Amino acid sequence: QVQLVQSGAEVKKPGASVTVSCKPSGYTFTSYYIHWVRQAPGQGLEWMGWMNPNSGETDYAQKFHGRATMTRDTSITTAYIQVSRLRSDDTAVYYCARGTKWLVQGYWGQGTLVTVSS
Amino acid sequence: QSVLTQPPSASGTPGQRVTISCSGSSSNIGANTVTWYQQFPGTAPKLLIFSSHQRPSGVPDRFSGSKSGTSASLAISGLQSEDEADYHCATWDDDLSGIVFGTGTKVTVL
Which residue of B47, B99, B101 is the best one to mutate when testing the A interface, meaning the one whose CB has the most A CBs within 10 A? Predict the structure, then answer.
């Protein structure tokens, strides 16, 4: 069955960077886009961007241009998102999810809590 | 600053019909199909409706979606206690060239 397994919770100081990994299984890694969506405590969902694991092409929501970087390692079928220059308002649960370019489908990772605190 | 607007809460008694609205604009809902997700506390969202009105296999038919102009709606007929959750709408925005989510609606079963 399709699963996306993410790395564990992180605690970072303001100004630092964090990398979250996402390892899908149960389907061909390069056949579907990987989206990243985050959710701050008590808030709604916020789309961060997508990556095409086949080509490595990425697209980011305007808010995250220059501060988020999505990559992948096809040899171990794992996707990553790095967020730099962390601020306290980056505290959120970060999800990876499978999809097409325009749609986040029904397969999501379990979420990774990133806490930014001095 | 979500682009799509949903009511913060909705409620009903078991068996009632509850409707959640999702209001957007000509560049998002007006131009593209809408997706709905259900989310329980502490868990990842679950796909409920895609292409504005299609249900994935396994989603009960008491959940239905519709779209008209720049707004979309999710209806839950025959409300059940297990439907108590947060519901989020989403679509592609042509102007932003990205996916936008709604503000989210918490459904309470009284």
Answer: B99
